[in-house]
Design the sequence.
């Protein structure tokens, strides 16, 4: 109200009331520009923190999933590549935030690589979900299609399809010469509407539909468990069968948790991205500010999708949680040893007793493996007693 009374007085003083809408529109644009700069500065720190936290979590997931107790399975292969793709997406987001000088080639490269790695990260989650569905529904097909080699080949095929598709479509959809003033890679006017619809469908919509196969996986596990309990087969099952069923249940719980997080983070972002096809045709200031906040929040949600998988692995996977604790313990012992031995130059510092016993047991096992006759002599002594 104060703004419009000020404009009315100003227009009346110069004798031209037609300047009121023009001044009001200029004031709105100026306020939106100031608000956008402040909002960009705030979200810059938020996105930078998410990128750093996500990179740390994904690297830790790579270390934990490739431990001896968790690797050599098809699921570990998929989780490894998904962590690599998520890390690449977060790294590219951080590079886009830290780009001080706008260069056209760098901006186009960042857009292209972000699209490729985002596509691969989302579709690896789809592949591992379908793989779990096959493994639970048909154990016979699981032996053929759910192996480590098949998992690697499927990821290689996915990356090849992504590179060929995006390399073909990118110069057609985007104007590689860009905007000479802003030096940014812009979308061609003929493809702006199509990109707003097709890209979220390929990146998020179709994966959302295929991830619904989790319901069938959970249903198959529940039905199998009820059959075992009703027929009292648990007492007759071998220990290996019980362990394999337990592993499948833990993997399924992990995947269901990650898939729910995928829906939680990507569905609002997809809806916001599609609704932004039609820009607002009003000049109401608080609504324009609200739309800017919602648009920036959608970017944050997409980054959280790539940054929080490690948290859900730890919350839902007992073996993954145990491996994480073991990794932290080993890392803390090594850092402490490095600090005392090389920074404080304490040559008398030794590993803790429990670590020495663990290394001694490893060396004893290796010695027995290298000299099998020693193991034979111990067996003979046991028989003679």
Sequence:
């Amino acid at each position: 109200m104060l703004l419009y009374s000020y404009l009315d007085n100003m227009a009346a003083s110069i004798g031209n009331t037609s300047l009121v809408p023009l001044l009001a529109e200029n004031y709105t644009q100026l306020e939106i520009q100031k608000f956008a700069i402040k909002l960009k500065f705030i979200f810059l720190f938020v996105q930078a923190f998410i990128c750093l936290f996500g990179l740390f979590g994904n690297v830790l997931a790579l270390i934990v999933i490739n431990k001896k107790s968790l690797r050599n399975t098809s699921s570990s292969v998929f989780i490894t590549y998904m962590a690599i793709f998520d890390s690449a997406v977060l790294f590219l987001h951080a590079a886009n935030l830290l780009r001080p000088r706008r260069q056209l080639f760098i901006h186009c490269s960042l857009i292209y690589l972000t699209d490729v790695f985002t596509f691969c990260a989302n579709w690896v989650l789809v592949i591992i979900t379908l793989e779990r569905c096959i493994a639970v529904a048909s154990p016979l097909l699981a032996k053929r299609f759910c192996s480590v080699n098949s998992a690697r080949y499927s990821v290689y095929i996915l990356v090849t399809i992504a590179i060929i598709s995006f390399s073909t479509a990118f110069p057609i959809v985007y104007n590689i010469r860009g905007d000479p003033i802003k030096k940014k890679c812009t979308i061609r006017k003929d493809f702006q509407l199509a990109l707003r619809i097709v890209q979220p469908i390929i990146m998020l919509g179709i994966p959302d539909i295929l991830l619904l196969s989790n319901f069938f996986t959970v249903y198959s596990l529940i039905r199998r468990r009820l059959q075992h309990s009703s027929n009292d087969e648990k007492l007759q099952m071998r220990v290996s069968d019980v362990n394999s069923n337990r592993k499948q249940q833990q993997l399924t719980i992990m995947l269901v948790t990650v898939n729910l997080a995928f829906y939680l983070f990507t569905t609002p972002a997809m809806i916001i991205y599609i609704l932004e096809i039609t820009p607002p045709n009003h000049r109401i200031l608080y609504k324009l500010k609200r739309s800017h906040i919602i648009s920036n929040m959608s970017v944050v949600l997409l980054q959280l999708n790539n940054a929080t998988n490690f948290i859900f692995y730890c919350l839902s996977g007992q073996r993954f949680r145990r491996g994480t604790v073991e990794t932290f313990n080993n890392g803390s012992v090594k850092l402490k040893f490095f600090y005392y031995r090389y920074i404080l130059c304490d040559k008398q510092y030794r590993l803790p007793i429990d670590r020495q016993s663990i290394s001694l047991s490893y060396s004893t096992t290796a010695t027995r493996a290298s000299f099998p006759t020693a193991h034979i002599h111990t067996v003979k002594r046991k028989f003679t007693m």
Notes: The chain has three domains: 40-315, 317-350, 353-385.
